[in-house]
Amino acid sequence: MTAALTNRKWTLKSRPQTTVAEQHFNFETETVGELADGEFLVKTQYLSFEPAQRGWLNDVRSYVPPVAIGEVMRSVAAGEVIASKHADYQIGDRVQGGFGWQEYAISDGSGLFPVEKIIESVPISYPLHIYGLTGLTAYFGLLDIGKPKAGDTIVISGAAGATGSTVGQIAKLMGCRVIGIAGGQAKCQWLLDELGYDAVIDYKSESVELRLQELCKNSIDIFFDNVGGEILDQVLVNMANYGRIVLCGGISSGYQVAELPPGPKNYMQLVIRRCHMEGFIVLDHVDRYPEATEQLMQWVDEGKILVKEYILEGIEQCPQALAGLFSGQNFGKQLVKI
Ligand SMILES: NC(=O)c1ccc[n+]([C@@H]2O[C@H](COP(=O)([O-])OP(=O)(O)OC[C@H]3O[C@@H](n4cnc5c(N)ncnc54)[C@H](OP(=O)(O)O)[C@@H]3O)[C@@H](O)[C@H]2O)c1
Protein backbone atom coordinates (compact mmCIF):
# COMPACT_ATOMS: atom_id res chain seq x y z
CA MET A 1 0.00 0.00 0.00
CA THR A 2 2.86 2.42 0.85
CA ALA A 3 5.96 0.66 -0.46
CA ALA A 4 6.53 2.92 -3.47
CA LEU A 5 6.69 6.08 -1.34
CA THR A 6 9.89 7.80 -0.30
CA ASN A 7 10.02 9.84 2.91
CA ARG A 8 12.45 12.72 3.41
CA LYS A 9 13.11 13.76 6.99
CA TRP A 10 15.41 15.76 9.26
CA THR A 11 16.92 14.00 12.28
CA LEU A 12 18.97 15.52 15.07
CA LYS A 13 22.70 15.08 14.44
CA SER A 14 24.25 17.06 17.31
CA ARG A 15 23.16 19.44 20.05
CA PRO A 16 23.81 23.12 19.31
CA GLN A 17 25.51 24.96 22.16
CA THR A 18 24.60 28.39 20.82
CA THR A 19 22.76 29.24 17.58
CA VAL A 20 20.88 26.43 15.85
CA ALA A 21 21.77 25.81 12.19
CA GLU A 22 21.44 23.23 9.41
CA GLN A 23 24.72 21.57 10.49
CA HIS A 24 22.96 20.21 13.60
CA PHE A 25 20.61 18.03 11.54
CA ASN A 26 20.87 15.16 9.03
CA PHE A 27 18.66 15.16 5.93
CA GLU A 28 17.69 11.53 5.32
CA THR A 29 15.71 9.57 2.76
CA GLU A 30 13.92 6.28 3.44
CA THR A 31 11.21 4.08 1.99
CA VAL A 32 7.89 4.40 3.79
CA GLY A 33 7.16 1.19 5.72
CA GLU A 34 4.04 -0.97 5.45
CA LEU A 35 1.14 -0.19 7.78
CA ALA A 36 0.30 -2.60 10.60
CA ASP A 37 -3.32 -3.11 11.69
CA GLY A 38 -4.45 -0.07 13.69
CA GLU A 39 -2.10 2.35 11.87
CA PHE A 40 -2.57 5.03 9.22
CA LEU A 41 -0.26 7.06 7.00
CA VAL A 42 -0.24 10.85 7.04
CA LYS A 43 1.17 13.03 4.25
CA THR A 44 2.24 16.19 6.06
CA GLN A 45 1.23 19.50 4.53
CA TYR A 46 2.31 22.16 7.04
CA LEU A 47 4.89 22.06 9.81
CA SER A 48 4.71 24.46 12.76
CA PHE A 49 7.78 26.29 14.08
CA GLU A 50 8.11 27.66 17.60
CA PRO A 51 11.08 29.03 19.54
CA ALA A 52 10.57 26.27 22.13
CA GLN A 53 11.84 23.76 19.55
CA ARG A 54 15.34 25.22 20.04
CA GLY A 55 14.99 24.53 23.77
CA TRP A 56 14.05 20.90 23.09
CA LEU A 57 17.52 20.38 21.61
CA ASN A 58 19.17 21.04 24.98
CA ASP A 59 19.84 18.02 27.16
CA VAL A 60 18.37 19.63 30.28
CA ARG A 61 15.31 19.20 32.49
CA SER A 62 12.28 20.84 30.92
CA TYR A 63 8.54 20.38 30.57
CA VAL A 64 9.16 17.82 27.79
CA PRO A 65 12.14 15.46 27.30
CA PRO A 66 14.85 16.62 24.88
CA VAL A 67 14.82 15.41 21.27
CA ALA A 68 17.18 12.41 21.11
CA ILE A 69 20.16 12.28 18.78
CA GLY A 70 19.02 10.43 15.63
CA GLU A 71 15.32 11.15 16.30
CA VAL A 72 13.14 12.94 13.73
CA MET A 73 13.09 16.60 14.77
CA ARG A 74 9.97 17.15 16.85
CA SER A 75 7.25 19.55 15.68
CA VAL A 76 3.52 19.69 15.36
CA ALA A 77 2.29 19.16 11.79
CA ALA A 78 -0.98 19.05 9.90
CA GLY A 79 -1.67 16.70 7.03
CA GLU A 80 -4.00 14.27 5.33
CA VAL A 81 -4.50 10.55 5.82
CA ILE A 82 -3.51 8.82 2.55
CA ALA A 83 -3.69 5.16 3.65
CA SER A 84 -5.32 3.55 6.66
CA LYS A 85 -5.69 0.28 8.56
CA HIS A 86 -7.27 2.14 11.50
CA ALA A 87 -11.04 1.94 12.05
CA ASP A 88 -11.34 5.61 13.12
CA TYR A 89 -9.19 7.25 10.44
CA GLN A 90 -10.19 7.19 6.76
CA ILE A 91 -8.35 8.28 3.62
CA GLY A 92 -8.90 12.02 3.21
CA ASP A 93 -9.20 12.80 6.94
CA ARG A 94 -7.24 15.90 7.96
CA VAL A 95 -5.28 15.48 11.18
CA GLN A 96 -2.67 17.20 13.29
CA GLY A 97 -0.09 15.71 15.62
CA GLY A 98 3.55 15.63 16.57
CA PHE A 99 4.63 14.15 13.25
CA GLY A 100 7.94 16.07 13.12
CA TRP A 101 10.07 17.34 10.26
CA GLN A 102 9.17 14.72 7.65
CA GLU A 103 7.00 14.29 4.58
CA TYR A 104 5.17 11.14 5.71
CA ALA A 105 4.38 9.81 9.18
CA ILE A 106 2.85 6.53 10.34
CA SER A 107 0.52 6.96 13.34
CA ASP A 108 -1.68 4.74 15.49
CA GLY A 109 -3.73 7.76 16.52
CA SER A 110 -2.21 8.11 19.97
CA GLY A 111 -0.75 11.47 20.94
CA LEU A 112 -2.76 13.42 18.39
CA PHE A 113 -3.65 16.91 19.52
CA PRO A 114 -7.10 17.90 20.76
CA VAL A 115 -8.19 19.28 17.38
CA GLU A 116 -7.56 15.82 16.00
CA LYS A 117 -9.60 15.85 12.87
CA ILE A 118 -9.34 19.29 11.40
CA ILE A 119 -12.64 20.86 10.55
CA GLU A 120 -13.19 21.07 6.79
CA SER A 121 -14.19 24.72 6.76
CA VAL A 122 -10.93 26.16 8.12
CA PRO A 123 -7.53 26.28 6.39
CA ILE A 124 -5.60 23.17 7.39
CA SER A 125 -2.76 25.33 8.75
CA TYR A 126 -4.92 27.28 11.25
CA PRO A 127 -5.03 24.58 13.96
CA LEU A 128 -1.22 24.84 14.00
CA HIS A 129 -1.43 28.39 15.29
CA ILE A 130 -4.54 30.51 15.86
CA TYR A 131 -6.75 27.48 16.65
CA GLY A 132 -3.83 25.63 18.25
CA LEU A 133 -1.04 26.21 20.73
CA THR A 134 -0.23 29.76 19.59
CA GLY A 135 -3.76 31.10 19.95
CA LEU A 136 -4.27 29.16 23.17
CA THR A 137 -1.04 30.55 24.63
CA ALA A 138 -2.18 34.08 23.88
CA TYR A 139 -5.67 33.38 25.24
CA PHE A 140 -4.75 31.75 28.57
CA GLY A 141 -1.66 33.86 29.22
CA LEU A 142 -3.48 37.13 28.70
CA LEU A 143 -6.89 36.35 30.13
CA ASP A 144 -5.96 34.09 33.08
CA ILE A 145 -2.72 35.70 34.23
CA GLY A 146 -2.84 39.19 32.72
CA LYS A 147 -6.50 39.64 33.78
CA PRO A 148 -7.11 42.62 31.46
CA LYS A 149 -9.71 45.25 32.29
CA ALA A 150 -11.02 47.98 29.99
CA GLY A 151 -8.71 50.97 30.20
CA ASP A 152 -5.62 48.97 31.24
CA THR A 153 -2.34 49.73 29.52
CA ILE A 154 -0.62 46.60 28.23
CA VAL A 155 2.88 46.31 26.78
CA ILE A 156 3.70 43.25 24.65
CA SER A 157 7.22 42.19 23.65
CA GLY A 158 7.65 40.07 20.54
CA ALA A 159 4.49 41.87 19.51
CA ALA A 160 4.55 41.06 15.79
CA GLY A 161 5.19 37.35 16.30
CA ALA A 162 2.53 34.67 16.18
CA THR A 163 1.72 34.79 19.90
CA GLY A 164 2.33 38.51 20.43
CA SER A 165 0.14 39.62 17.54
CA THR A 166 -2.74 37.51 18.89
CA VAL A 167 -2.30 38.83 22.44
CA GLY A 168 -2.46 42.42 21.21
CA GLN A 169 -5.67 41.84 19.28
CA ILE A 170 -7.38 40.11 22.21
CA ALA A 171 -6.25 42.94 24.49
CA LYS A 172 -7.86 45.46 22.10
CA LEU A 173 -11.08 43.44 22.27
CA MET A 174 -10.90 43.72 26.08
CA GLY A 175 -10.70 47.52 25.80
CA CYS A 176 -7.01 47.91 26.65
CA ARG A 177 -4.52 50.48 25.42
CA VAL A 178 -2.00 48.30 23.56
CA ILE A 179 1.70 49.09 23.10
CA GLY A 180 3.79 46.65 21.08
CA ILE A 181 7.57 46.19 21.04
CA ALA A 182 8.87 44.65 17.81
CA GLY A 183 11.90 44.66 15.54
CA GLY A 184 11.82 46.86 12.45
CA GLN A 185 9.70 49.49 10.77
CA ALA A 186 7.61 47.09 8.66
CA LYS A 187 6.46 45.02 11.65
CA CYS A 188 5.72 48.13 13.73
CA GLN A 189 3.71 49.73 10.91
CA TRP A 190 1.68 46.54 10.49
CA LEU A 191 0.82 46.55 14.21
CA LEU A 192 -0.39 50.13 13.99
CA ASP A 193 -2.15 50.07 10.62
CA GLU A 194 -3.71 46.62 10.48
CA LEU A 195 -3.93 45.33 14.05
CA GLY A 196 -4.97 48.62 15.63
CA TYR A 197 -2.23 48.89 18.25
CA ASP A 198 -2.21 52.28 19.96
CA ALA A 199 1.58 52.69 19.91
CA VAL A 200 4.71 50.75 18.99
CA ILE A 201 8.38 50.68 19.89
CA ASP A 202 10.91 49.48 17.33
CA TYR A 203 13.52 48.03 19.68
CA LYS A 204 16.02 47.74 16.82
CA SER A 205 16.11 51.47 16.05
CA GLU A 206 14.70 53.21 19.14
CA SER A 207 15.61 53.38 22.83
CA VAL A 208 13.09 51.16 24.62
CA GLU A 209 13.89 52.97 27.86
CA LEU A 210 13.06 56.42 26.46
CA ARG A 211 10.01 55.32 24.50
CA LEU A 212 8.49 53.57 27.52
CA GLN A 213 8.91 56.78 29.52
CA GLU A 214 7.19 58.76 26.75
CA LEU A 215 4.34 56.31 26.26
CA CYS A 216 3.60 54.73 29.65
CA LYS A 217 5.86 55.95 32.44
CA ASN A 218 4.96 54.10 35.68
CA SER A 219 1.58 53.11 34.23
CA ILE A 220 1.90 49.65 32.68
CA ASP A 221 -0.87 47.46 34.10
CA ILE A 222 0.07 44.31 32.16
CA PHE A 223 3.32 43.22 30.54
CA PHE A 224 3.03 40.16 28.28
CA ASP A 225 6.65 39.10 27.88
CA ASN A 226 7.84 36.87 25.07
CA VAL A 227 11.41 38.14 25.13
CA GLY A 228 12.93 38.61 28.63
CA GLY A 229 16.39 40.11 29.15
CA GLU A 230 16.89 43.86 28.89
CA ILE A 231 13.36 44.58 27.68
CA LEU A 232 11.92 42.96 30.80
CA ASP A 233 14.20 45.12 32.93
CA GLN A 234 13.12 48.30 31.13
CA VAL A 235 9.45 47.44 31.58
CA LEU A 236 9.85 46.57 35.29
CA VAL A 237 10.73 50.18 36.16
CA ASN A 238 7.55 51.42 34.44
CA MET A 239 4.97 49.08 35.96
CA ALA A 240 1.91 50.54 37.67
CA ASN A 241 1.17 49.49 41.25
CA TYR A 242 -0.48 46.05 41.36
CA GLY A 243 0.50 45.32 37.74
CA ARG A 244 0.67 41.81 36.26
CA ILE A 245 3.66 40.42 34.34
CA VAL A 246 2.92 37.38 32.20
CA LEU A 247 6.09 35.36 31.56
CA CYS A 248 5.34 33.60 28.30
CA GLY A 249 8.87 33.15 26.96
CA GLY A 250 12.39 34.52 26.87
CA ILE A 251 13.49 34.39 23.26
CA SER A 252 16.27 36.94 23.78
CA SER A 253 18.15 34.13 25.55
CA GLY A 254 18.13 32.21 22.27
CA TYR A 255 17.15 29.20 24.45
CA GLN A 256 20.84 28.28 24.39
CA VAL A 257 22.61 26.19 27.00
CA ALA A 258 26.09 27.69 26.63
CA GLU A 259 25.39 30.97 28.37
CA LEU A 260 22.21 31.40 30.36
CA PRO A 261 20.93 34.97 30.71
CA PRO A 262 21.06 36.69 34.12
CA GLY A 263 17.80 37.25 35.98
CA PRO A 264 16.16 40.68 35.83
CA LYS A 265 18.25 43.16 37.79
CA ASN A 266 15.21 45.35 38.48
CA TYR A 267 13.20 42.59 40.15
CA MET A 268 12.85 44.61 43.39
CA GLN A 269 10.32 46.73 41.48
CA LEU A 270 7.95 43.80 42.00
CA VAL A 271 8.09 44.53 45.72
CA ILE A 272 7.97 48.30 45.52
CA ARG A 273 5.08 48.29 43.04
CA ARG A 274 3.33 45.18 44.51
CA CYS A 275 3.33 43.46 41.13
CA HIS A 276 2.51 39.87 40.29
CA MET A 277 4.86 38.02 37.93
CA GLU A 278 3.89 34.52 36.77
CA GLY A 279 5.10 32.01 34.23
CA PHE A 280 2.86 29.45 32.57
CA ILE A 281 2.88 26.62 30.03
CA VAL A 282 -0.10 26.39 27.71
CA LEU A 283 -0.20 22.58 28.03
CA ASP A 284 -1.50 22.98 31.59
CA HIS A 285 -4.84 24.27 30.26
CA VAL A 286 -5.72 21.32 28.05
CA ASP A 287 -9.12 20.79 29.72
CA ARG A 288 -10.18 24.27 28.59
CA TYR A 289 -8.89 24.10 24.99
CA PRO A 290 -12.40 23.57 23.52
CA GLU A 291 -13.80 26.69 25.18
CA ALA A 292 -10.82 28.82 24.10
CA THR A 293 -10.73 27.47 20.55
CA GLU A 294 -14.43 28.17 20.10
CA GLN A 295 -13.93 31.77 21.21
CA LEU A 296 -10.89 32.24 18.94
CA MET A 297 -12.83 30.84 15.98
CA GLN A 298 -15.67 33.24 16.63
CA TRP A 299 -13.30 36.24 16.78
CA VAL A 300 -11.59 35.19 13.54
CA ASP A 301 -14.94 34.58 11.79
CA GLU A 302 -16.14 38.02 12.85
CA GLY A 303 -12.95 39.64 11.51
CA LYS A 304 -11.93 40.75 15.02
CA ILE A 305 -8.66 38.82 14.92
CA LEU A 306 -6.49 38.90 11.81
CA VAL A 307 -4.15 36.00 11.11
CA LYS A 308 -0.78 36.30 9.40
CA GLU A 309 1.28 33.35 8.21
CA TYR A 310 4.93 33.41 7.14
CA ILE A 311 5.42 30.36 4.92
CA LEU A 312 8.63 28.81 3.61
CA GLU A 313 8.16 26.15 0.92
CA GLY A 314 9.70 22.67 1.04
CA ILE A 315 10.98 20.23 3.67
CA GLU A 316 14.53 21.43 2.88
CA GLN A 317 13.69 24.75 4.59
CA CYS A 318 13.13 23.34 8.10
CA PRO A 319 16.45 24.32 9.74
CA GLN A 320 16.20 27.82 8.25
CA ALA A 321 12.62 28.18 9.49
CA LEU A 322 13.70 27.38 13.06
CA ALA A 323 16.83 29.54 13.00
CA GLY A 324 14.88 32.45 11.48
CA LEU A 325 12.68 32.75 14.58
CA PHE A 326 15.76 33.98 16.44
CA SER A 327 16.73 36.58 13.83
CA GLY A 328 13.20 37.96 13.42
CA GLN A 329 12.75 36.53 9.91
CA ASN A 330 9.09 35.65 10.49
CA PHE A 331 6.16 38.03 10.31
CA GLY A 332 3.30 36.33 12.15
CA LYS A 333 3.28 32.52 12.34
CA GLN A 334 6.28 30.64 10.92
CA LEU A 335 5.25 27.57 8.89
CA VAL A 336 6.86 25.29 6.33
CA LYS A 337 4.59 24.06 3.55
CA ILE A 338 5.44 20.61 2.28
N1 LIG B 1 4.53 29.56 27.79
C1 LIG B 1 4.04 28.85 26.79
O1 LIG B 1 3.26 27.92 26.97
C2 LIG B 1 4.44 29.22 25.39
C3 LIG B 1 3.83 28.62 24.28
C4 LIG B 1 4.21 29.01 23.00
C5 LIG B 1 5.19 29.99 22.85
N2 LIG B 1 5.79 30.53 23.95
C6 LIG B 1 6.80 31.58 23.83
O2 LIG B 1 6.16 32.68 23.21
C7 LIG B 1 7.14 33.45 22.53
C8 LIG B 1 6.67 33.71 21.09
O3 LIG B 1 6.60 32.47 20.40
P1 LIG B 1 6.01 32.39 18.91
O4 LIG B 1 5.88 30.97 18.57
O5 LIG B 1 4.83 33.27 18.83
O6 LIG B 1 7.20 32.98 18.05
P2 LIG B 1 7.21 34.33 17.22
O7 LIG B 1 6.97 35.45 18.19
O8 LIG B 1 6.31 34.21 16.06
O9 LIG B 1 8.69 34.41 16.64
C9 LIG B 1 9.76 34.81 17.38
C10 LIG B 1 9.97 36.34 17.31
O10 LIG B 1 10.75 36.73 18.43
C11 LIG B 1 11.44 37.93 18.12
N3 LIG B 1 12.83 37.84 18.62
C12 LIG B 1 13.78 36.93 18.25
N4 LIG B 1 14.92 37.17 18.92
C13 LIG B 1 14.70 38.26 19.69
C14 LIG B 1 15.51 39.01 20.61
N5 LIG B 1 16.79 38.68 20.84
N6 LIG B 1 14.95 40.09 21.21
C15 LIG B 1 13.68 40.44 20.97
N7 LIG B 1 12.85 39.78 20.12
C16 LIG B 1 13.37 38.70 19.50
C17 LIG B 1 11.44 38.08 16.60
O11 LIG B 1 10.62 39.20 16.27
P3 LIG B 1 11.27 40.68 16.08
O12 LIG B 1 11.52 40.81 14.62
O13 LIG B 1 10.23 41.57 16.62
O14 LIG B 1 12.56 40.69 16.86
C18 LIG B 1 10.78 36.79 16.11
O15 LIG B 1 10.02 37.00 14.96
C19 LIG B 1 8.44 32.69 22.63
O16 LIG B 1 9.20 33.22 23.70
C20 LIG B 1 7.99 31.29 22.95
O17 LIG B 1 8.98 30.55 23.60
C21 LIG B 1 5.42 30.15 25.21
Brief synopsis:
By secondary structure, the chain is an alpha/beta fold. The chain has 9 helices and 15 strands.
Indicate the topology.
Blueprint: E1 6-12, E2 25-31, E3 40-48, H1 52-55, E4 77-84, E5 94-97, E6 104-107, E7 112-117, H2 133-146, E8 153-157, H3 162-173, E9 177-182, H4 185-193, E10 199-202, H5 208-216, E11 220-225, H6 229-236, E12 239-247, H7 269-272, E13 276-279, H8 289-301, E14 309-313, H9 318-324, E15 333-337
Helix pairs in contact: 2-3, 2-8
The structure holds NADP nicotinamide-adenine-dinucleotide phosphate (NAP).
NADP nicotinamide-adenine-dinucleotide phosphate binds near residues 134, 251 and 334.
Describe what this molecule looks like in 3D.
- By secondary structure, this protein is of the alpha/beta class.
- The chain contains nine helices and 15 strands.
- The strands form three sheets. Strands 3, 4, 5, 6, 7, 14 and 15 form a seven-stranded mixed beta sheet that branches. Strands 10-9-8-11-12-13 form a six-stranded parallel beta sheet, with helices on both faces. It has a two-stranded antiparallel ribbon with strand order 1-2.
- The longest helix is centred in the middle third of the chain and has 14 residues, at 133-146.
- The mean pLDDT is 95.
Rg, alpha carbons: 21 Å
N- to C-terminal distance: 21 Å
Arithmetic mean pLDDT: 95
Strand content: 25-35%
Q: What CATH architecture of the largest domain do you see?
A: Alpha-Beta Complex
